[in-house]
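Practice set, problem 2.
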Amino acid sequence: MQGLWKSVAAVAVGLGIQAAAATGIAGTVVGGQVFIDTTNHTFSGALGSALHSADATQFIGCYTTGTSVFCQARNTAGTLVSCATSNAAHIEAVKSMGDDSRLFVRYDGGTCTSVIVYNHSYWESR
């Protein structure tokens, strides 16, 4: 009988450790400001973080007309960048954007050369 109680105790401790570990990562939210690098021609940020920022300056986003994409961002310093593309892969990436998206864009002049959308629950939601 003592062996049974030791097994039950071991399982209970194991479940407790798992519950504590899950609680430690559950609900993790990663934010951050809109980042614009005019030297390397990139901009990035989470849609929710820009929306919920303390200032009324920064924003980031893209939209598609179905045949083209337009992306734009403004950081806390007021630097504004934008680009457009008709690249089919970029259009599909923008179509995948949601409330929990983070956007990374590389541009050359007014042309978006790379549009990457990260969808994950830990990005701050809109």
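Problem 2, part (b): a different protein.
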Amino acid sequence: MREFLRNAFALDDGKPCEPSDDERAVLDRVVDEVVRRRLSTPAIAFLEMSRPLNVVGAAAIHFFTPIAAVLANPLHLRRFADFLERRGSVDYLCRMIERAEQARLGACCEGAEPPREKVDSGVPDADPSSASTRSGVGGGHGGSDGESNHEPQSGGHEAGPAESAPIRSTSAPTGRDDNAPR
């Protein structure tokens, strides 16, 4: 009796969550779709945030299976929900997504050419710290007679009206002073 009561409120057996072969096939399809659509980061973030609710999510999948059967195989939905009911399922699914994403990035980069060396074309870089010298402000590219050249050179950046104008509210006036104490 004492042995029974000691384990009466145990939450798990301490073993890592391992899916069955059928569950693994469903998980592979889900993970492949997530990675193919490049949703790995949002999927992992969602799984991590909903970790305490994985059993509730599994119950929701069971509940909506008759409706979702129009879009997906009901047997696959049941297997996925059965997997999510177990502790450690979210960790396992996150690891699968991370591995698949790493494999996608590794396959993507294996056949890629090494980066080319930068060739100096004589055009200044788009470095914002040197924008004042490119636009002629500050005497960087003035003419020989001391006049200032305000036209940007090729590749230069000139501040447009949106960048030089102060930020104003676009909302309609409310009739009250926003800076007044309330």
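Answer key, part (b): Residues 22-107 form one domain. The mean pLDDT is 75.
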